[in-house]
Amino acid sequence: MSERAGGRSTIVTETRIVCTDADARRKFRLYWRLVGPFSALIRRILLRSIKGDAEASMRAQGAK
Questions:
Q1: What whole-number distance in Å separates Cα of residue 44 and Cα of residue 47?
Q2: What residues pair up with 9 in beta bridges, in sequence order?
Q3: Which tens digit of pLDDT belongs to each residue from 14-57?
Q4: CA dist., res. 23 & res. 18, Å (int)
Q5: CA–CA dist 60, 57 (Å, integer)
Q6: What is the DSSP string of 4-38?
Q7: What single DSSP character describes residue 64?
């Protein structure tokens, strides 16, 4: 997370892997072809939820 002007923040996700050899890379590519789209969906859902919570918190602070 990084802070931006006006008290705003940016949150990003990152997936890192290390494949130790060609066979591991091949197996991971097969695995990621199946899992990747669901992983991306979960990240989008979580980021949307975080955004909604943060915006609600900012609105509540503004109402005080």
A1: 5
A2: 3
A3: 889 999 999 999 999 999 999 999 999 999 999 999 999 988 98
A4: 12
A5: 5
A6: -GGG-EE----------SHHHHHHHHHHHHHHHHH
A7: -
User: Which of 5, 7, 14 lies closest to 55 in space, CA to CA?
Assistant: 7
Query: Which residue carries 């996700």 as its tokens?
Result: 13
Would you call 2 helix, strand, or coil by DSSP? strand
> Which amino acid is residue 60, in one-letter code?
A
* Residue 44, helix vs strand vs coil: helix
Q: Point out which residues pair with 10 in neighbouring strands.
A: 2
- Classify residue 3 by its DSSP letter: E
Joined together, the tokens standing for residue 64 give 């005080």
Q: Is the pLDDT of residue 2 over 70?
A: no
**Single-letter amino acid code for the residue at 11:** I
pLDDT top residue among 3 and 41: 41
